[in-house]
User: Which sequence fits this backbone?
């Protein structure tokens, strides 16, 4: 069944769109490598952090207050930072070399394919058809670390943009108070 054609504003943001493959891949990764994770709690935490990495943008975008949106972007970034630390710990605990971004771009073709899908349309289709998570463990870990770093960077930029908007245009309460004062002047 096709979903309603309406798309929320956040669905056009690369800072949001990149979180979708991160969440999907994290679920696949954790299921595939469950036996290498330090505990079942780590499995749950990684999946939850990846999920939060998508959901807080959606929730923040629906806030009446720009302050609330900014706060939830910060929470979102924090969830992705936590997920990044989990992947780095996984690499360390399993003696997996963490590559520089340039090497990941050269050796992990899926990274380029993910970005082609993210940039191809203004919003992601319901089933974006991302490439499979690499079956090579080192490539899979490095893909995840790179995608998460990119998402954190994009969300930092989004947060800065929202903060600038807040400084220039004010917040919800401030603007509502201005409307109230204008109303009282007209009465």
Assistant:
């Amino acid at each position: 069944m096709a979903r309603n054609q309406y798309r929320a504003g956040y669905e056009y943001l690369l800072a949001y769109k990149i979180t979708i493959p991160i969440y999907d891949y994290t679920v696949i990764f954790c299921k595939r490598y469950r036996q290498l994770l330090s505990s079942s709690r780590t499995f749950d935490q990684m999946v939850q952090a990846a999920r939060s990495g998508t959901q807080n943008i959606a929730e923040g975008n629906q806030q009446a207050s720009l302050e609330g949106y900014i706060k939830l972007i910060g929470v979102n970034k924090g969830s992705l930072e936590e997920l990044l630390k989990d992947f780095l710990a996984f690499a360390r605990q399993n003696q997996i070399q963490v590559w520089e971004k340039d090497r990941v771009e050269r050796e992990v073709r899926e990274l380029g394919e993910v970005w082609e899908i993210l940039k191809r349309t203004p919003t992601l289709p319901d089933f974006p058809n991302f490439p499979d998570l690499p079956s090579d463990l080192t490539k899979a870990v490095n893909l995840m670390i790179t995608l998460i770093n990119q998402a954190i960077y994009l969300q930092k930029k989004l947060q800065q943009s929202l903060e600038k908007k807040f400084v220039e245009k004010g917040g919800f309460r401030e603007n509502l108070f201005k409307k109230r004062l204008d109303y009282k002047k007209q009465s």
Summary: The chain has eight helices and no strands. Residues 137-169 form the longest helix (33 residues). Residues 10-186 form one domain. Residues 60 and 71 are 8 Å apart (CA to CA).
